[in-house]
Amino acid sequence: MDYATSFGLVLPELVLTAAGLILLMFAAFGGDKTGRLVSILAAVALGGAGALVIPTLVNGVSGAEAMAFNGQLSADSFSAFAKLLTYLAAIGCLMIAPGFLEARRAMKPEYAVLLVFATLGMSIMVSATDLMTLYIGLELNSLAAYVLASFLRNDSRSAEAGLKYFVLGALASGILLYGMSLTYGFTGTTSFDGIRAAQEAGLSTGALFGLIFVLAGLAFKISAVPFHMWTPDVYEGAPTPVTTFFATAPKVAAIALTARVALDAFGSVPDAWRQIVIFAALASIVVGALGAIGQNNLKRLLAYSSINNVGFILIGLAAATAEGASAMLFYLAIYVVMSLGSFVAVLMLRNGDGEYLETFDDIAGLSSTRPGVAWCLLILMFSLAGIPPLMGFFAKLEVFRAVVEAGLIPLAVIGIAASVIGAFYYIKFVKVMFFDEAVDRATQRGSGAQWAVLGICTLLISPLGWFLSRGLELMTDTAAAGLFAGV
């Protein structure tokens, strides 16, 4: 394949690269006053990149025709779905940020530029079909994320979050690199196709250790137990728009990358990694649920909720089938909408002095003082708990159905039983907002962009979202088929 064809396949990445560099120069010469304009232009660039991946998803492109740069990247329907979801989440995070950053006098153009480069890294991650491009995309995303976590220079919590994320992220990168080196040493290649072919006769002990270390490094990126320890602290300390970004777009990219590594590179030996994924799934569900019960800070609680939901997503991956991959992507799309809406609702809680509120004490009786936010949060929390007829219920139904069809009935039973634990802390939101005595602390209104994002997210996961679920299911089926085309 010639370079012209390869460049055509990675056109979304080229758009983001050009946009990031141009906006960086624009920010350098324009100064802080260009912050809002740079955010708008960044959202336009992300929207343009998203429009470019839609034909790939609709046409179900896969296999050799999707390969770019001699098999380094795959612009198939699977990566197209993950990119589209990532770009939309990033646009949502750009929309909600100006109100928060301007209130803190921190509305700088660097925020949007960093977010574009982080999204570029995620775009490379989901297309990677080689360990080298995998690591390049992962580190491009991570380096931007470390800076975003500590974006509020005068906030000690933000600085602490950035430092913790950097130190633990560097540790995870080292673990991942060690696993990649073992995998290369025992298979003789860094290509996913070559790794899969080398293991068709069986998995050697050395390659098994490589697989374990690779999955351990990726588990950190998706906040799966036992590599979840950074999540509550970073989510609490980082600026809320950044926390929203961490909980949505990078989560999509990391989970999509994990699925490609497991089902593509190690797809010929599913029994070798399935038990690892099952343990991480069940441990994440239980630890996420139990860890959230005692939390009073809303962002820390939503961090544990994120860990809990990763467990359900990994249940779909454990099936190691096209149906399981489709269910995983279906759940992932709904999870992004629920998380985005939940964090936006928290972002809209401000008192009369403009200070942001983050605890349960601050939302007591919210239904009588801010009924719009309270009712949106009620729908979002019930959906996260998996209560029908909200879309969160159908997402859980899809992943459990996939593992039952794969013959993993005990996993489905344990997962369903463990999901009951999480309902407690989601219902706590409702109890505090609707039944506790009102404190009337959240008095300031959210911006129009924040209301737009919250309203759209609430409608999408409400029973009205069911009318769109068939289209989403068709897209996830097409994406999963693209991933299994070369397996």
Please give a structural write-up.
The protein is mostly helical. The chain has one domain. 76% of the residues lie in helices and 1% in strands. The protein has helices spanning 3-9, 11-30, 35-59, 77-103, 109-127, 131-149, 156-187, 192-198, 205-222, 231-237, 240-247, 249-265, 270-293, 298-318, 322-347, 366-369, 371-384, 391-405, 409-435, 448-461, 466-484, and strands at 67-68, 73-74. Strands 1-2 form a two-stranded antiparallel sheet. A hairpin with a 4-residue loop joins strand 1 and strand 2 (73-74). The relative contact order is 0.10. The mean pLDDT is 87.
Structural class: mainly alpha
Low-pLDDT parts are none
Q: Please report the distance between the alpha carbons of the first and last residues.
A: 21 Å
How would you describe the oligomerization state of the chains in this entry? single chain
> What would you report as the Rg, rounded to the nearest angstrom?
21 Å
- What portion of the residues fall into strands of 2 or more residues? under 5%
How confident overall, as mean pLDDT?
87
What would the principal axes of the Cα set say about the shape? globular
Total tally of structural domains: 1
Work out the number of β strands: 2
Percent of residues in helices: over 70%
Note the run of SSEs as H and E. Answer: HHHEEHHHHHHHHHHHHHHHHHH
Largest sheet: 2 strands, antiparallel
Number of helices: 21
Order of strands across the biggest sheet? 1-2
Protein name: NADH-quinone oxidoreductase subunit N
GO molecular function, one term: quinone binding
Domain NADH:quinone oxidoreductase/Mrp antiporter transmembrane: 128-422
Family: Belongs to the complex I subunit 2 family.
